[in-house]
From TrEMBL:
This is Importin-5-like. It comes from Nicotiana sylvestris. GO terms for biological process: protein import into nucleus. InterPro entries: ARM-like, ARM-type_fold, IMB1_TNPO1-like_TPR, Importin_beta, Importin_rep_4, Importin_rep_6, TOG. Residues 158-402 form the TOG domain. GO terms for cellular component: cytoplasm; nucleus. Keywords: Cytoplasm, Protein transport, Repeat, Transport. The keyword Repeat applies.
Length: 805
């Protein structure tokens, strides 16, 4: 092991790939060491060698390039050798998975091996056969849907998902469908089950192309609904449940007449409550259609079945039925009105009967379901049952439940009822807020995150007691509580004023809560919503301190959002924070002092510099020898995120220009070098559009004091009016019109050049096509502005053609 560790460190220390290639003879020697260890049953040595190769795969994959075929082939032989111990076989699979990981993966090298995909898929499929038919899976007395599965099974599942994501849709789809079709008709239930589980994970990783095989996939999964083994039927239902999200809305719109009757039939499987419960879950997930009317014809039958399931003795079946009923109400909206009087008595009965501690979860889910029903039917219809619902929620909250899932149901039910009744919720705020604040302030102990924040067990204080909860449950409860805080502020508007200081003190630190992206997102959005409530409270005379209170609050919020930009690791979250900052500036911009504006400019400089740095890294990745179609798609998505960040920077600057007009120009000058158009291709279309948008506002709001920027921007506007991207043309032509209107004598030298270029756009034979329509309209408008403001400098021959057109 020491020799292998030294060899690995030596390879990593070599400064260049060429120097590393000089030591390629290490690989055959190490492979021989591995095969010898296998032959002699020296498992410890074999695992040491496998660990060496896995480190290479993770850190120096290109070192393996010249002998990759031999190395991978050896790993496959080890993975398929039934005589070897399971950990050793799994290490061989892990080596291959490490090669597929990360942005600098060795995928391009692997795809050049013609046998790689088929062989590795088969190895992973076979891992899924490692399953036992445990009797307690069938009783559905616990939520453990994986009873009887082994480490090998889990390993196969994660491997299939990882392989699917790495190889990409086009590579894996046809191969997987062919292999799985054979498994689905095998006599062994384990193989039929494995085929459906494999299909589930492969689709999860490659749904974009798998949708082209949707009819074939639906047929493959619906047939096992009739399978004699319940675990196979369950696996088929699970696939439909997941695909309802992955293939939305195509699955709902094209196959509702096949899927919903099959699921309704599965809901009658009283001998197999786990299958029955999962059929309800699948119905719930299927009911997210953009066109509820497509599914309305099935409501009578499905709702009747769900109400029957509510009366069973199996808690899992009851819970699933309540979940489905709530989501069906939510998606069907006004179509649920006629079912309200039919369904609500059953839900009320559950609230009354499930009143001991052992039934907290049923009562909570029933309450959640009622809250969905309330949103669906509206305040007027729900009004008669509002008081009873609120009393049940209060009693649940006062019972001091310690189960986080029950707590989450209570929080979510409060928020939905608030959405339903709006400001009529105000009398209940004093009951809701103390518990909500306590949940929002739940603080995980970072020192116990040995296995990551989600899998750790946490001790936190709740109800003045220390309770032990799973890290993932804690983070989710905190996320829901923060969402509710923002929602109450949004719904209560100025009436949320008494709770603004407390909510702000919660949100501001959470901008740097790096354990959970959505909590940071909610914090950024929540601060904007609080500022909006405070503004309304000041305007309505409800806020003590008036303008000075609002000025201090807005200053603190702007400072917190700007400060968060310096340490935010996620590009997408950076865009969210900027959007919230921009929204806040639209509310409080005129109150900013010079120091605060300087601080914002510094924040924006940092953001733009980081965009440039990350774009450079993306460019370098595109130069990689193993850069392929899948890597290109990943880069495209990351560049779109960078565009979103820059667009939000643009909106902030536009808000400041509109607010301070020419007084903002000295601050803008500090950023101008970052925002100038460029003849090179380093700026994306979105970046060019954003730069033009900012310049438009300078022209419109800053008058003659902004004229020094005209000579820089105008040539780029003229050039961009013929850009291949319609949105760029459209914005460039709009900018030309503004310049014609506001630039006066500065624009005059450009008139002769602008007219023929505008004419080209107007006269183009495709000018009136839908994608070019806005550019055409802006060209006409620009021409009109030139005629209006610069008529004396124009040769009539230049425009007669345009006028006639």
């Amino acid at each position: 092991n020491a020799v292998l560790t030294t060899a690995f460190r030596f390879i990593r220390c070599l400064p260049s790939l060429n120097e590393r290639q000089l030591f390629q003879n290490l690989l055959p020697a190490t492979l021989r060491m591995l095969t010898d260890a296998m032959s002699n049953s020296e498992n410890v040595l074999a695992q040491d060698v496998l660990s060496f190769f896995t480190k290479l795969a993770k850190n120096e994959p290109r070192f393996l390039r010249t002998q990759l075929a031999d190395v991978v082939n050896t790993m496959f032989e080890i993975a398929e050798a039934k005589s070897l111990k399971e950990p050793t076989r799994h290490m061989a699979v892990s080596f291959v998975l490490k090669l597929l990981e990360g942005k600098e993966k060795a995928l391009g090298m692997l795809q050049k091996l013609p046998w790689f995909t088929n062989t590795f898929l088969e190895i992973l499929f076979n891992l899924l056969l490692d399953i036992k038919d445990e009797p307690h899976w069938h009783t559905a007395e616990t939520n453990n849907e994986n009873a009887g599965v082994t480490k090998g099974y889990y390993f196969g599942c994660s491997g299939l998902e990882q392989l699917s994501k790495a190889l990409g849709d086009k590579t894996i789809a046809p191969v997987a469908i062919e292999q799985l079709s054979a498994y689905l008709v095998a006599p062994e239930w384990e193989k039929r089950h494995a085929a459906l589980i494999a299909l589930f994970y492969i689709v999860e990783g490659s749904s974009k192309v798998m949708i082209n095989y949707l009819e074939q996939l639906v047929n493959m999964v619906l047939q096992p609904f009739q399978d004699p083994h319940p675990r196979v039927r369950w696996a088929a239902i699970r696939s439909i449940a997941w695909w309802s999200i992955e293939f939305f809305p195509d699955l709902q719109e094209k196959y509702h007449n096949h899927v919903l009757p099959a699921l309704a039939s599965a809901m009658d499987d009283f001998q197999n409550p786990r299958v029955q419960a999962h059929a309800s879950v699948a119905v719930m997930k299927f009911c997210i259609s953009k066109k509820p009317e497509t599914l309305v014809p099935y409501l009578d039958g499905i709702l009747n079945k769900l109400l029957v399931l509510l009366q069973t003795d199996n808690q899992m079946v009851q819970e699933a039925a309540l979940d489905a009923l709530g989501y069906i109400a939510d998606f069907s909206k006004e179509h649920f009105q006629k079912y309200y009087d039919f369904v609500t008595p059953h839900l009320k009965a559950l609230l009354v009967n499930a009143n001991d501690k052992s039934n907290h979860i049923i009562r909570s889910k029933a309450m959640e379901c009622i809250s969905f029903v309330g949103i669906a039917v509206g305040k007027e219809k729900f009004r008669d049952d509002l008081h009873q619902a609120m009393e049940v929620l209060k009693s649940l909250q006062e019972s001091r439940v310690k189960e986080l899932d029950t707590i989450v149901y209570i929080l979510q039910a409060w928020s939905r009822i608030c959405q339903c009744v709006g400001k009529d919720f105000l009398p209940y705020m004093s009951t809701v807020m103390p518990f909500l604040v306590e949940c929002a302030q739940l603080e995980p102990d970072k020192t116990v995150f040995t296995n990551g924040p989600y899998s750790s067990t946490q001790k936190v204080k709740l109800w003045d007691e220390l309770i032990c909860i799973k890290g993932s449950d804690l983070l989710y409860a905190k996320f829901v509580a923060c969402s509710n805080l923002a929602l109450y502020a949004l719904s209560m508007k100025e009436d949320f004023y008494p709770w603004i200081p407390q909510a702000a003190s919660i949100f501001a630190p959470l901008l740097k809560f790096y354990m959970h992206n959505n909590i940071r997102n909610n914090a950024a959005r929540g601060l904007y919503v609080l500022l909006r409530s405070a503004k309304l409270a000041v305007e309505n005379g409800a806020a003590q301190g008036g303008e000075s209170y609002f000025k201090q609050l807005s200053g603190n919020i702007i400072l917190a959002l700007g400060d968060a930009l310096y340490s935010e690791p996620e590009t997408k979250l950076c865009a969210y924070i900027l959007r919230s900052l921009g929204n806040c500036l639209q509310i409080c911009g005129p109150l900013l002092n010079e120091e605060q504006v300087c601080s914002i400019i510094g924040d924006i400089k940092h953001v733009i510099t980081e965009i440039s740095r990350r774009k450079g890294e993306l460019t370098e990745r595109a130069k990689s020898k193993d850069f392929d179609v899948e890597a290109a798609e990943l880069l495209r998505e990351e560049r779109e995120q960078e565009d979103e960040v820059f667009e939000n920077v643009g909106h902030i600057l536009v808000t400041l220009i509109e607010t301070f007009k020419a007084a903002f120009l000295p601050f803008f000058y500090e950023l101008s070098s970052y925002l100038m158009p460029s003849e090179s291709k380093d700026k994306t279309a979105a970046e060019r559009i954003t730069c033009f948008f900012i310049f438009d506002k300078l022209v419109e709001y800053c008058g003659e004091e902004a004229l020094k920027y005209f000579n820089i921007y105008l040539p780029f506007l003229l050039e961009a009016r013929n850009d291949e991207i319609p949105l760029v043309r459209q914005n460039a032509l709009f900018g030309l019109g503004l310049c014609a209107e506001y630039a006066g004598s500065v624009f005059r030298p450009f008139v002769g050049e602008a007219l023929p270029r505008i004419n080209v756009v107007i006269m183009h034979f495709r000018a009136r096509e839908v994608e070019n329509e806005l550019a055409y309209d802006n060209a006409i408008s620009a021409l009109d502005k030139i005629l209006q403001f610069h008529r004396e400098t124009i040769d009539s021959a230049q425009v007669c053609t345009s006028d006639n057109h």
